[in-house]
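Students often ask why inverse folding is considered easier than folding. One informal answer: many sequences map to the same fold, so there is more than one right answer. In these notes we will look at a single instance of the problem. The structure comes first.
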C-alpha cells in the first residue's frame, strides 16, 4: 500500500518535474536540489535521468528525494543534461515500475520522460498501441507519452513532441531527455505549471519557480499553453508544439498546491494567498478575538484575514514537523488519535476566545471536524471556519487526487449542513470571484472545474461515470478518511 500522510484529507499534489542543461557541472546534483525544492508536489517516488551526450542513465526509487539519492548514486549519474521527477500517483499504482522518469529505447537512443498531470485519453491510446503489439512495463499514463514519443522519434525529437501533443488529451507538463537534448512542453490549456530560466551557464525548466532559488537559477519565462522549450548545446529556444486551447491554470495551484514562494501568472503565491484572506474577511466578516491559521498552509490567508478585519493574528496550534510521510502505517490507536498526531493546540492562545479558523480547503470535511473539536476542547468559546478554496463539488480529472463526487462534502451537503457536520459556530467559503481576483487574473484564465463543473477539456463518459458515482452510503466518508485515499483514474 502506498505511504499516506497521516490523517489529512486535503487533495493531494500531483508531481514535480525538472529538466536542465548545466555546462561544466554535474546535472544530477543540480537536479537533486531542484527536486528537493519540488518535494511538496510528490513524496512517493523520485528519479533522475542524465545524459553525458551519448548515453542516458537513470536512478529512481520509492521515497523522498533525500531517501532515494545519496553521494554514490549521484556519482554514478555523469553528464550535463538531466530530467528529474517527484511523484504522487494519480493514475497507476504507487509502485516502483510506475516511478519516473520513464526510460525507453528510441531511434535517437534512450529517452527518459517525466510527466506531471493526467491524460484523459490514456486508456484508449494504450489499448490502440497494445493492439498494435506495443509492450507496456507499468500502468501509468506517463508511459503512454513515452512510448508515443518513441514511435515518432524518426522525425526528430521536436517533431515527435509536436506529434504527441496533438494525440494526447488532458493536463500535462512534461520534461524529456534524449542523449543530446532536453525538451519540455505544456498542454494546450496550460493546466499544470511549467517555467523556464537560467541556471549558471545553462538552462532549466521546472514545475515551479521555487526550484530555481536553491540552485542559483533565475526564472525567465512561464511556458504558455501548448508551448515547447528545447534546450541543447546551442541554448534554449521555444516553439509552439500544439495550438493553444485557452489558458486554464489550475486554481488549486494558487490556493494550496504550489509552494508559497513560487510565482505563477506573475504573482507570488504567498501574496495571492494573503489577498485571498483579505477577500474572505470582506465576504464573511465576523466578530471574534483571534484569527488562527491551520499551519502551515493557512498562515498567509489568516494574515490577510487579520489585516482586513483588524482581529489579531494568533498562532493557536503547533504542527509536528516530523509527521509528513512515512512508510510506517499508523496503527488503529494512532488513527483514532486523529489530527492530534499532527496538530497540538496552544491552550493559552485559545482558551476563552472566539476564534476565526482559516484553512485552505474542505474535501471530505473530516480533518476540519477534528480541528474544530480540538479548538473547542482547548477552551475556544466559538470557532468560525473560513476556507480559501470555494466549495469543491466536482472531481478533478487533471492530475489532482481528490475522491469521487459522492465523497466530496460540498457535492452532497449544503454549507449549513457542512457547518453542522464539522461542529463550527459558522462557516464561510471564499467565492470563485474572490479567489481569482486575489490572484489578479480573470476567471476565464483558470481551471475551475472542481468548483463549478465546467471542464476546460471534455472528460470521456467512462472516466466521469466512475468519479460521479455517489456511494450508496455517504457515511462511508468517515471510514475513507482515516488515511485511505482513493486514487482517481486507476
Ligand atoms: S479540477 Fe480543480 S484541482 Fe483539478 S485542475 Fe481544475 S481547478 Fe485544479
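Output (designed amino acids):
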Amino acid at each position: 500500500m502506498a505511504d499516506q500522510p497521516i490523517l489529512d484529507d486535503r487533495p493531494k499534489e500531483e508531481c514535480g518535474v525538472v529538466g536542465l542543461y548545466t555546462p561544466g557541472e554535474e546535472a544530477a546534483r543540480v537536479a537533486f536540489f531542484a527536486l528537493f525544492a519540488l518535494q511538496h508536489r510528490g513524496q512517493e517516488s523520485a528519479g533522475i535521468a542524465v545524459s553525458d551526450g551519448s548515453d542516458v542513465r537513470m536512478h529512481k526509487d520509492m521515497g523522498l528525494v533525500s531517501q532515494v539519492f545519496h553521494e554514490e548514486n549521484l556519482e554514478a549519474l555523469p553528464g550535463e543534461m538531466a530530467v528529474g521527477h517527484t511523484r504522487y500517483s494519480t493514475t497507476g499504482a504507487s509502485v516502483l515500475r510506475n516511478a519516473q522518469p520513464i526510460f525507453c529505447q528510441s531511434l535517437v537512443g534512450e529517452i527518459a520522460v517525466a510527466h506531471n498531470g493526467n491524460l484523459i485519453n490514456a486508456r484508449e491510446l494504450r489499448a490502440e498501441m497494445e493492439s498494435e503489439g506495443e509492450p507496456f512495463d507499468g500502468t501509468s499514463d506517463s508511459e503512454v507519452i513515452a512510448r508515443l514519443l518513441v514511435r515518432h522519434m524518426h522525425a526528430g525529437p521536436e517533431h515527435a513532441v509536436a506529434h504527441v501533443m496533438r494525440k494526447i488529451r488532458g493536463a500535462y507538463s512534461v520534461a524529456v531527455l534524449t542523449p543530446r537534448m532536453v525538451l519540455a512542453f505544456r498542454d494546450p490549456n496550460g493546466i499544470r505549471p511549467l517555467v523556464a530560466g537560467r541556471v549558471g551557464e545553462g538552462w532549466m525548466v521546472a514545475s515551479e519557480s521555487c526550484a530555481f532559488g536553491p540552485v542559483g537559477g533565475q526564472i525567465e519565462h512561464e511556458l504558455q499553453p501548448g508551448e515547447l522549450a528545447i534546450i541543447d548545446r546551442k541554448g534554449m529556444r521555444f516553439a509552439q508544439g500544439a495550438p493553444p486551447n485557452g489558458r486554464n491554470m489550475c486554481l488549486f495551484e494558487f490556493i494550496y498546491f504550489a509552494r508559497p514562494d513560487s510565482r505563477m501568472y506573475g504573482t507570488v503565491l504567498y501574496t495571492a494567498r494573503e489577498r485571498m484572506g483579505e477577500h474572505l474577511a470582506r465576504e464573511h466578516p465576523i466578530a471574534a478575538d483571534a484569527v488562527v491559521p491551520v499551519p502551515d498552509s493557512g498562515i498567509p490567508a489568516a494574515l490577510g484575514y487579520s489585516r482586513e478585519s483588524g482581529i489579531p493574528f494568533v498562532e493557536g496550534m503547533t504542527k509536528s514537523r516530523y509527521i509528513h510521510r512515512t512508510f510506517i502505517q499508523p496503527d488503529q490507536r494512532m488513527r483514532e488519535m486523529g489530527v492530534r498526531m499532527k496538530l497540538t493546540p496552544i491552550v493559552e492562545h485559545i482558551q476563552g476566545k472566539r476564534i476565526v479558523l482559516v484553512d485552505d480547503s474542505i474535501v471530505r470535511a473530516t480533518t476540519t471536524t477534528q480541528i474544530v473539536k480540538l479548538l473547542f476542547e482547548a477552551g475556544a468559546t466559538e470557532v468560525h471556519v473560513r476556507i480559501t478554496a470555494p466549495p469543491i463539488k466536482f472531481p478533478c480529472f487533471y492530475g489532482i487526487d481528490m475522491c469521487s463526487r459522492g465523497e466530496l462534502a460540498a457535492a452532497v451537503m449544503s454549507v449549513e449542513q457542512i457547518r453542522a457536520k464539522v461542529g463550527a459556530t459558522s462557516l464561510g467559503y471564499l467565492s470563485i470571484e474572490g479567489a481569482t481576483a486575489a490572484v489578479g487574473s480573470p476567471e476565464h484564465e483558470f481551471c475551475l472545474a472542481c468548483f463549478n463543473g465546467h471542464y476546460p477539456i471534455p472528460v470521456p463518459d467512462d472516466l466521469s461515470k466512475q468519479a460521479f458515482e455517489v456511494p450508496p452510503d455517504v457515511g462511508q466518508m468517515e471510514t475513507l478518511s482515516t488515511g485511505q485515499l482513493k486514487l482517481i483514474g486507476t
